[in-house]
Amino acid sequence: MCKSPVQKKFIIVQRMNNVRCIICGRADPEPLFTKKSRSGDPFGLVRCGGCGLEYVSPRPSPEEMSRYYGMDYFATRTDRGYDDYLSEKTRREIERVIDLNLSDLGFFGFEKSAPPCRRSLDIGCAAGYFVSYLKKRGWDSRGIDVAGGCVDFARRAGLDVTEGDYLKASFGERFSLVTMWATIEHLHRPDLFLEKIHEELEDGGLLYISTCRTGGLNFKRLFGKGWRYYNFPEHLYFFSYANIKNLLEQKGFRTVGYATYGSGFGSPGSVSRRAADYAAKRFGLGDMMLVSARRK
Questions:
Q1: What is the pLDDT of residue 25?
Q2: 238: pLDDT strictly greater than 50
Q3: Parallel/antiparallel/unpaired status of strands 175-181 and 201-212
Q4: Which of 294, 222, 205 has the alpha carbon at shortest distance from 262?
Q5: Residue 43 contacts residue 35 (beta carbons within 8 Å)
Q6: Helix, strand or coil for residue 46?
Q7: What is the mean pLDDT of the chain?
Q8: d(CA 165, CA 60)
Q9: What percent of the chain has pLDDT over 70?
């Protein structure tokens, strides 16, 4: 029997899950505001009354989330500045940002001191641009992502990329470096991911995270609910540096590096954007952050 739009909406609401704070466990968050997804479904942002973590609740189940991720997500992500994620132009821009991020995190010194057999895993690798980057530098580099179209793209490029859920995957070896570039904010259970990463890192291994940043002096304050990273429900968590540091420490990590970048101010390529991005990085005002953590 065909279902009416109202009935369909009811089914979606029924599949929504209220969640506790993954840092302090509280279940009484403060509602902040509601915002519609690209498909028109409304989602609410809440803030934990204990630690201040912002997250989307209630939210779709992991199974229901697939309806928000199709290849159009990668082809039309103009909110992130990508007109076509799989284009050569985007690949070059991502590699430029990778170089800057790795420099800020002290990667090149770490790489020199790493053992000859250097294994890496990029969680949420998408089209595999970072997997390719490290492979060219002599790493045994791997990736994993749930987006089948992107995984196929990466495999056609000859990359070792797995399609699936990292929490269910088995690699059978440990890694010198695990990365989550703009990934942790998408996860239903970042806490469980960090627990598994801790188990799979070598002693002295590093975890690199990039994610959008709340808290403190931040260009985000200029935009309110119109902030470029308030993309619901694809983005589920919005961490401050204090939040991410706290969660990492709970899961057996020690933070060893931190930097911010990005402003979202002005149009891409404009003088105002370049000036704002410089200030964001120079004075720690960025709405993106980089965190490096070492396995204790």
A1: 95
A2: yes
A3: parallel
A4: 222
A5: yes
A6: strand
A7: 89
A8: 17
A9: 89
